[in-house]
Amino acid sequence: MEYYIYTDGAASSERNVIGCAYFIMTSETFIHTNTVRVENCNNPTQAETIAIGVATMYMLKNVEFKDGDTVGFYSDCLSTIEFCKKYIDNDLEVWTKNTLVSSSIQQLRDLRNIVPVSFIKVKGHKGKLTPNTYVDRLATFALYR
Q1: Residue of 12, 13, 10 lying closest to 135 (CA atoms)
Q2: What are the pLDDT digits (tens) for 72-92?
Q3: Closest CA relative to residue 139, chosen from 50, 62, 26
Q4: Which residues contact 93 (CB under 8 A, 6 or more apart)?
């Protein structure tokens, strides 16, 4: 089975808060979605990384993977994709004060040890309703809840 995970993050420097969201599906069915709000952080790249980590944690706890399964993360943030690829493909220590970011990388490493993981850059949400548009709206909503 191929799992598609769309993630997005939003940040508010005035509120010093981030919102992040994920949407998990297969070609046949919806699996799960969630939003997270994190206080005392306003970095959008970290928000997207945390969204990936939270989705990964859900997958690790709730999905029984079988041989041949794959997980693809779909993000419109190239810096997040590059950051995650850099740190999950080796055992480099993650240099960040944000423990949610370093925890997200560890979750990705754990997932990668079970199933192949890929990262796919998607175009930003430009008025067309897609899973990426959906998670963008959820992440923005998380800022204000």
Answers
A1: 10
A2: 999 999 999 999 998 888 777
A3: 50
A4: none
